From TrEMBL:
Protein family per UniProt: Belongs to the beta-catenin family.
Classification via InterPro entries: ARM-like, ARM-type_fold, Armadillo, Plakophilin/d_Catenin
Compartment(s) of residence: Cell junction
Region (Disordered): 72-109
UniProt-listed SMART domains: ARM (SM00185)
Organism name: Anthoscopus minutus (Southern penduline-tit)
BP-aspect Gene Ontology terms: cell-cell adhesion; desmosome organization; heart development; intermediate filament bundle assembly; protein localization to plasma membrane
Keyword ATP-binding annotated: no
Keywords carried by this UniProt record: Cell adhesion, Cell junction, Repeat
Protein name as it appears in the record: PKP2 protein
GO cellular component terms given for this protein: adherens junction; cytoplasm; intercalated disc; nucleus; plasma membrane
Bias type Basic and acidic residues, positions: 94-107
Length: 296
């Protein structure tokens, strides 16, 4: 677990170590099957997999990445390396949401397991069944890592979480836990998922009222809560930017007074949350059909 957080070279060596990832997955599967999702060894295994999934898309060997993305549509010459997903144009990002991954292998090995639907379902199962905060946070964090890029892999993982594995109810429950790091990671995962335009209506229907309910009445006084508040605002921005229906849902969930109050705190210490709330307000105002409702 310590070695897996030693940086890019350490992660590379551990991903290449034959049988290591398979053994970690095997152990967690056994723990879930035996109804023991709370033991310390399971926590350690999940934390290792969480670390090994960090920047996975960027750090994959180029030859390996090319085989994964063989169905990817041709983009400009500048976009051929696996590390440049973050700089692509909006048009390319929208294209890639429709670009499927090659068919999943029924028996994945090694690094292939890290984004396979089997492991995604394991994470979601641990989120639902474990009461150990570090295990919950690491499971959410692994999914956050896997959905962080803008290439085909993150969007394929996002679709699996939302549509194929019905993962939103478990993630939604994590918004209401008392542990601030778990809540923060759950919100960060939802922010990643909400970037996928094809999933936004599903996400809004399932979790938008819950996001509004955990939004504070004003800017909170600690850094973690402040970052969580900013992430909630940006998630709501993603969900409402192109949807008047979702903006109305935010309104009916009594979110507007909270967002206004957060936006009005101009203290430097809390500017991240206030700025995010202001961006959200600006976007909400673009729905001209809702102006009279906003004024009321």
């Amino acid at each position: 677990r310590n070695m897996s957080s030693a940086g890019p070279e350490g992660r590379k060596k551990m991903r290449e170590c034959e049988g290591l990832i398979d053994s970690l997955v095997y152990y967690i599967q056994g723990a879930i099957a035996d109804h023991e999702p709370n033991d310390k060894a399971t926590e350690n295994c999940v934390c290792i997999l969480h670390n090994l999934s960090y920047q996975l898309e960027i750090e994959l060997p180029e030859s390996y990445a090319q085989s994964i993305y063989m169905q990817r549509r041709n983009t400009s010459n500048n976009d051929k390396t696996p590390g440049c997903f973050g700089t692509r144009s909006r048009k390319v990002k929208e294209k890639q949401q429709d670009t499927p991954l090659p068919e999943e292998k029924s028996n994945p090995k090694g690094v292939e397991s890290l984004w396979h639907s089997t492991l995604i379902r394991i994470y979601l199962s641990l989120i639902a069944k474990s009461t150990r905060n570090y295990t919950q946070e690491a499971s959410l964090g692994a999914l956050q890592n896997l959905t962080a890029g803008t290439g085909p892999m993150p969007f394929a993982v996002a679709r699996t979480v939302v549509q194929k594995a019905n993962g939103l109810p478990g993630i939604r429950a994590m918004l209401h836990v008392s542990h601030p790091a778990v809540k923060k990671t759950a919100v960060s995962l939802l922010r990643n998922l909400s970037r996928n335009t094809s999933l936004q209506n599903d996400i809004a229907r399932e979790v938008l009222p819950d996001l509004v309910s955990v939004l504070p009445e004003c800017v909170p006084g600690c850094d973690v809560a402040c970052e969580t508040t900013a992430s909630i605002c940006y998630t709501l921005f993603n969900l409402t930017q192109s949807s008047s229906h979702n903006a109305r849902l935010l309104l009916s969930s009594h979110g507007l007074p909270k967002v206004i109050a957060i936006s009005m705190n101009d203290s430097n210490m809390f500017s991240k949350a206030s700025r995010a709330a202001s961006v959200l307000l600006y976007s909400l105002w673009s729905h001209t059909d809702l102006h009279s409702a906003y004024k009321k």
